[in-house]
Structures
1.
Amino acid sequence: MKSDLQSSTARPPRELCPVAYQDFVSSEPFHLELGGVLPGLTLRYETYGTLLPDKSNAVLVPHALSGDHHVAGKYTPQDVKSGWWDVFVGPGKAIDTDRFFVIGINCIGGCRGSTGPLSIDPRTGQPFGGFFPEITLSDIVRAQRLVIQHLGIKKLHAVVGGSMGGMQSLLWCADYPADVGRIAILAAGLSQSPMAIALNAVSRACVESDPNYRGGHYKPGEGPDTGLSVGRMLAHISYLSSAAFDQKFGRVRVDGAKPGEPVYWQVESYLHHQGAAFVKRFDANSWLRITRAVDRFDLTARAAAGKLFQPNGPDVLAVSFSSDWLYPVNEMRMLVAAATAVGVNATYHEVITDAGHDGFLLPDTGLSVRLHAFLG
Amino acid sequence: MKSDLQSSTARPPRELCPVAYQDFVSSEPFHLELGGVLPGLTLRYETYGTLLPDKSNAVLVPHALSGDHHVAGKYTPQDVKSGWWDVFVGPGKAIDTDRFFVIGINCIGGCRGSTGPLSIDPRTGQPFGGFFPEITLSDIVRAQRLVIQHLGIKKLHAVVGGSMGGMQSLLWCADYPADVGRIAILAAGLSQSPMAIALNAVSRACVESDPNYRGGHYKPGEGPDTGLSVGRMLAHISYLSSAAFDQKFGRVRVDGAKPGEPVYWQVESYLHHQGAAFVKRFDANSWLRITRAVDRFDLTARAAAGKLFQPNGPDVLAVSFSSDWLYPVNEMRMLVAAATAVGVNATYHEVITDAGHDGFLLPDTGLSVRLHAFLG
């Protein structure tokens, strides 16, 4: 894939390969915002590029709901897929790993290496499973900060995140304004809207109504795959736009499908495929914990009280995507207005695209140029 | 409830009570568009008002996906609810039953009295259940026409429908243009869009993945209630708008709910309630048959070929609702452009509302005045 920046840069982009993950491990109890305690923490992370001796060039890229620490590059040349934001992160790319030290960290509550429901609870010797406590995005960010401190980084050059990652950018600004120079928020808003909660609620109901869910107390490999798959199908719809559905699938039928068959339309086939692929890499209890954490995200009161953006706080780049109906453009405009009102250097940009919410993942929207300029 | 028309009318609206349904029964085989055959037909219908001796004042109101023949009035004064469009249909209302003879008919494939999956297949003595054949909206309209002919009506004064009912209005225009004087299409379009198909597909996946579904071959009372409930929760989201969710629910929590409980947000509680209420009155096999029929709806090719609207065909009133993201306004504009292009007397009106797709069910949007004027 080529980013829109690449045609205007002198250095052709090169592939990050091999990359490798590392684990940060702490045996200290980690106290959660809602009252739970994790007896210890493992945080899986990857880095790309070289940290300068003064450690001033670190860029954290928090991931979205179903993402992970594998932001860019390949583990081996044989890997079919690169990291989830490889289009933007790499040598010569918008977030240029020839200049920046880029960090991806799997969030707590996740299922890709960091402490989450699949992890062993050392107190019982069993996976946390349904007993994994409730988390917030503030918890996720506070845990990230342990890795940043572990790396000896006192101040991040930037935090750049899309969707749930953008919410984390905002929480860095809210909770640790002195620790970050600039934040980019892509395809997110000041809060999770009631309709976005509704969509997550139905997605959770799909999981919770699967008989294999058993209140979260399923055995590994015997979980509510069907419910999680259907829940993911729904979530996937919200990441696209009506125009994107028109362009990708139209009203085209599956070859040979007969009326009444469960998979009749191309779009139906695509969604079933997405759902089936998702359950191979995601855990249902993680899905519930993380969607609930996202639903709790609400910085509107703090923004109104002047406790989110402050004159000496991080610079802000907010980018919306015109056809994103999950996090509509007006929420981001309000966010930038709130930042600007208190003297923050804040910029709003609306990408005109039919791609919907997933627009932040795609090349050729003009986002690369904006991000590159913002990072300085 | 008061409609916006009522303040400007000389006759105060009166309640239709009691109303009663009737059954049209045919023992003739009914051949379906996709090849199936129903060995006979029962069509449950209701009428309100008085048919003129020349039978010129009949207005058919086809229902939406989950509606039925009970359009207006109450069966007994003790009924808590009136028919689903009572705000618009009754003496002194927009569709004035002092002047018009209004007809509501439960669609075939439904579960409210007309021949559908819950009906007994006379060939087996058992309910059709999962063996009920696939239907189309054209089949539904063709069956309606049998009732209209049974009532001795040669030409309907009007067909007025919202959502799936609006698609049926269009099919009357397409298939029987000489049989109807005018059609009103509310909150619909020329076709079911790929994203609308996607939403129905996930809703169906909810049903089909419920272990009680058994390929449709469940016993009455032992059906996939959980899956149908969750599928309906999803559908319900698509009937509202983000602004409507903000206004109705905001980010308000259920009193006393603890983080991690399955029903934590007011909006979550509302959706669960809607789902649970729905399964008490609807059959899962009907849901599958009717959503698939809606997904098949596509008159774009016929419109382009000049075989939908014709110069001497019915007058057209098309009404969109500004926040309806299921059937967006641009589709209706195209529809009216197609009608106007061939000389049809066609009017487009956009109701500015936060109510979303369900706007056509609500009073006080200005729709009453438009409908009243259109019916003449």
Note: The first helix of chain A runs from residue 137 to 150.
2.
Amino acid sequence: MAAFSTRVTDGLLNEIRAIVGDRLTLSQSVRDQHGTDESYHKPYPPDAVVYPRSTEEVSEIVKVCARHKAPVIPYGTGTSLEGHIAALEGGICLDLCEMNAVVAVHPEDMDATVQSGVTRKQLNTQLHNTGLFFPVDPGADASIGGMAATRASGTNAVRYGTMRECVLAMTVVLADGRIIQTSRRARKSAAGYDLTRLFVGSEGTLGVITEVTVRLFGIPEAISSAVVSFNDIKSAVDSVISIIQMGIPIARIEFLDDAGLDAVNRYSGLNFPVKPTLFLEFHGTDAGVKEQAEMVGEICAGNGSGEFLWATKTEERNKLWEARHVAAYAVTAMRPGGKPWATDVCVPISRLADCILETKQDVDASSLYAPVVGHVGDGNFHLVMVIDPGNPDEIAEATALNDRLMKRAIAMDGTCTGEHGVGHGKMDILDAEHGEAVNVMAAVKKALDPDNIMNPGKIVRF
Amino acid sequence: MAAFSTRVTDGLLNEIRAIVGDRLTLSQSVRDQHGTDESYHKPYPPDAVVYPRSTEEVSEIVKVCARHKAPVIPYGTGTSLEGHIAALEGGICLDLCEMNAVVAVHPEDMDATVQSGVTRKQLNTQLHNTGLFFPVDPGADASIGGMAATRASGTNAVRYGTMRECVLAMTVVLADGRIIQTSRRARKSAAGYDLTRLFVGSEGTLGVITEVTVRLFGIPEAISSAVVSFNDIKSAVDSVISIIQMGIPIARIEFLDDAGLDAVNRYSGLNFPVKPTLFLEFHGTDAGVKEQAEMVGEICAGNGSGEFLWATKTEERNKLWEARHVAAYAVTAMRPGGKPWATDVCVPISRLADCILETKQDVDASSLYAPVVGHVGDGNFHLVMVIDPGNPDEIAEATALNDRLMKRAIAMDGTCTGEHGVGHGKMDILDAEHGEAVNVMAAVKKALDPDNIMNPGKIVRF
């Protein structure tokens, strides 16, 4: 039997078994899998993995853990990138994959309530005949609960917002097992503190999100996607800045540098020019999409772009965006055995070209392989550094590069993380970004989780 | 000299005078004015009114108040509607009107940072030559700080969002005088708890907002407004529901019932048909506005609307919206000596017609004069009940009607307040709306303001 941390005892496990029966496992392989995210971070397996099926079961389990002061780590699909699911102090992992019911769809209100384990692709599949879709798209087929917990965004955020904007309400199990509803389904409210936004992005440290009500949007009458390449990074990013500043309601505007584009070409069997490239998507009426595309075309041409390669058929568009979405995997595949370390800064749009160009110089001066991909319409971009996790020199070099990048972004009035979250990977930099406000976060944490059992060791120090 | 509450002593006043000099007044008339909002609520004057000029001065004053455990009540323009500025337990009113500097405009990032006392009209005037505007428009020329504190919205929210969406970051003085920045200027962030959204809508109960960074938007190429009347309320509201469900990006869509329209006609010297009426505004490119207007025209015609009365020139549009904005004053003027009591429910859009129609029946069965006006695109509407504050029977009748309305909205998964906030007027209903979540709000309040000096007696009980 595995060595448990002091707080996970046989007595605690038996109390949980009384709630969930055989939906508790101590299997080493399952525990290892649940301590491992998609990043370079070292795995920290939990002591046990439990598969609850309802908010009430989660509540009962958390009550048991609270009595024993045992850590509780909520788990969606394990696609996080900053060690959010690491059981740093052991504890009970709550894998919510069996809470995968779409509870209610209200097409007439353009919202849906789902259990936290529902993934974004599953939701969109189940919405298929409603004419509506859920837009937040981080690439990975993450769970809606996990996306809410990390305040995820992705390629559509420039038009439709992030989880901050797209979550209307949530059911949350608090650290003592109480169940709350953070808000109601009305589109706006001034009824007290905005608990919905407090729990969106709380990364499991304030409670377990068990149900999420999300906004839906009408599938546009017309959708068209394009790829356009530029001679240099500055021309591409300057085009993005102009497009955003002109208020063109573009749905997606994504950047890959030449290295990133090369990796995508190889991985996805494509043959786009190996140059700094924008992937674009337009949503609207037929006339609206045409008008947007013309305006964007003029801006890009003014910056010396190549021709637009259009994808209007659904299959072509899907292939194009699939290629963009697997960019991190494509880049990782360029170095067999390597692990991806995705940086995640976000800056005001006017500083984006400076931030990317200075960062590119920094990468060029290093020994690292680190293409740039990014949700540039939001001012957010990633270096996908592919590192050998067994090589301390390389990790030190990547750490230093990321530190400089985060400080550069903060100096530009930006953030160390646009969408990946803090986890335990970015706690140190949070002081530099937020200063005294970090103590306010800690005060909120202590008020809602005085024994620090909810995903301890993430976001704020206790 | 006025009788002070036990905690506002001469010693405390002298300490504050040492910070602000003669920008502290004990004048009865000034105190009375600062205890009186625009609602039917009874005035509660503060013990003194202070006019700080900087975040640092606010911090020093709050530190003094914290030492003396004296209440601190932030004051913007006094246009609140739920007694937010009432000094229920006496205390020091911080009137932020002298903090009225636009600190920075970043046109290239489409944002601006202002001191809290800047009003929305002042900001838009100062933005005049940037091609940008700040869209949140509650009608009154409220201060940006006050609008952030009450999570205000208004006529443009259906397109541009409320203060929840339009505030990027804030400077806040906490209950012990510490100064924090809630966030940075990046458009999105996953860097810890969303303190910006926690303080938006906190009504001065968690700290004093001293600076606000807001999103700006490009002034659209084309703007056009229209008024259209219907034979009955249901036809008007059903048109709204269809417009929203079709995803038409309408900028404003406002409803007045026949009684409200009649009051507006009389007050503003207009002669629109005295029928249930929608005020509409379209923003976009020339072609986009035309397309939107055609789609909306078809929907309204399908519901038996009258002709659209168009206003395309700026002066015509301003006159039209001025008439809509003064609707509450127009309705109040119908009953000389009366005070307005504006209800504020917001429901999911599919329930809007039911909610308005059931409420209308309830009004018809009462003795009250209470026209309906509303931001119907968000599912939000107001009854403007004009009451005699000296008549207890009338107040009892209005109280009962509002209680039924709030419970009706909550039963429809809506909220008791879409935009006016809780103040001390809606604390009782908050339990019905939020249940256990109210205790989470109280825990946050206690963590950040353990001595309950920040605008005590609002939102949550201590």
Note: The longest strand of chain B covers residues 207-215.
